[in-house]
Amino acid sequence: MTSSLAYQLSELLGPEAVLPTEGYLVDGVVPQAVVRPPDREGVAQVLRWAAKDGVSLFLRGGGVLAGLGNVPASVDVVLDLTCLNRVVDYQPADLTITAEAGITLDNLRRELAQGEKFVPLEAPLSHRASVGGILATGFSGPMRHSYGLPRDWLIGISVIGGDGVETKAGGRVVKNVTGYDLNKLYSGSLGTLGVIVEASFKIAPLPDTLAGLVAFFSSMEVAVAAARSLVSQVYAPQGIQVASREVAGRLGLDMPTGSEAMVVAFLSGRPRAVARRAEESTRLLADSGGIAVDDLDETASAGLLGGLTDLAWKDTDCPTLALRVSLPPSNVGRLLESIKEREKGDLAGLAIVADPGFGMVQLLQWPDSPAGGPEPEAITALIDSVRRSSRELDGAVVVEVCPQDVKSGVDVWAGNVEANELEIMRRIKRNLDPAGILNPGRFIGRL
Fold it and tell me: Which InterPro entries does the record match to this protein (predicted)?
């Protein structure tokens, strides 16, 4: 079967488009073939062929977030999209850019910087992460409080559906009212509705400078309260994160004696404005119980921002468990209180990164954590405990990282949508991917 699929793809696109399967594992499963089409027509050809023969496709860009989602129902062919890496149109004066989905985030940033512009997309391992992967996963980073989600900057999209037909939504201008707003439908759908091949974004002037502050506190509760106070100010930073002691250690930061948590704030803009806002923020954090407040230069700030973004997705020092909880910002503190109450039980040993401005909490555990607990039963019980605590606070949990033997027995999206919502999603899936070949089983409800 393996040689058969590889042979058929070789006949379809040429032998140079068929790659070895090494390095393309999907949740421990070796695909039967890997194909890298040279262009969008090649992608469409693969989709038409796959739909005709019922061959399942696993979509892959840079592979950084390839582990996100349920164990797929089947993995026949990995569709590598990294050849779609061109900037199609860049209009600095109109504040728009259009690029193919396989371009890496770093390359997109470099292209934009030539016109002194940027688009506030964030992703771990940005030298590998593709724009299409960022959109498909809906990934956001520490600056999400100010800049929002990737879909908030998306103004147009081109997608090849499960039938091999390319469709477009939106456009290449900021003020467009072309058709239905399908940008948000495809964003975060994990490649189950179509293959994103091109995206247009509104962009913004590149900030002149980036600065950071790190304040240390006696407890997570005090740190969250200080952060909540800071984000409510007119001089609030673009991004703010609250992290526990273990996270600080993973980031290479030494915490002062008596501190158990830290607040990290990122500010960007014109140098004088950033300096003034940093001064005000430092004063507020100190008055809110900060044991020490350190200023970071631009290089250190960028390094820490990257470290927080990469935390759960690095190639080395990877956590065995990473859970993302989305909930109302006002409930972040209450969730952390719930975790503290149970810290000697199911939730012991969890490292924490919280975004109290946006409403997100990341819970992590490394193999060498005090309660690393590699046993599948213990990890499954921990996931269930986090879900119970989160549901009580109108939160939703996604299991981003967990051991393979745990993942095969849990739904990483469980409980995040109602039954009627799931039925609507199933109907959309059937309409856009009638053969069910795109990332089958990967998304909510094992769509």
Answer: FAD-bd_oxidored_4_C, FAD-bd_PCMH, FAD-bd_PCMH-like_sf, FAD-bd_PCMH_sub2, FAD-linked_Oxase-like_C, Oxid_FAD_bind_N, Vanillyl_alc_oxidase_C-sub2
Domain contains 54: yes
Q: Are strands 77-80 and 57-60 parallel, antiparallel or unpaired?
A: parallel
Dihedral (Cα; 48, 63, 146, 305), 10-degree rounding: -170
Contacts (Cβ under 8 Å, ≥6 apart) of 212: 264, 265, 266, 267, 295, 296, 300, 301, 304, 305
What strands, in cross-sheet order, belong to the sheet with 360-365?
A: 292-296, 209-217, 261-269, 239-244, 351-355, 360-365, 321-326, 396-401
What is the domain count for the chain? 4
Of 171, 205, 239, at which residue does a domain stop? 205
Structure tokens belonging to residue 438: 């795109």
Chain segment 241-272, per-residue pLDDT in tens? 999 999 999 999 999 999 999 999 999 999 99
What is the rounded CA–CA span in Å between residue 265 and residue 73? 41
Compute the distance between CA of residue 170 and CA of residue 159 in angstroms, rounded to an integer: 12
* Cα dihedral 430, 435, 441, 442 in deg (nearest 10): -80
Give the count of beta carbons closer than 10 Å to the beta carbon of residue 240: 27
- pTM reported for the whole predicted model: 0.94
Question: Are residues 239 and 146 in contact, defined by beta-carbon separation less than 8 angstroms?
Answer: yes
Q: What is the pLDDT of residues 38-89, one digit of tens each?
A: 999 999 999 999 999 999 999 999 999 999 999 998 899 999 999 999 999 9
Partners of 360 in the β-ladder: 326, 355
139 and 194, same domain (yes or no)? yes
Residue range(s) defining the domain that contains residue 356 = 321-407
The answer to whether the beta carbons of residues 191 and 429 sit under 8 Å apart is no
Is 415 inside a domain boundary? no
- The DSSP call for residue 148 is -
Give CA 362 to chain center in angstroms.
12
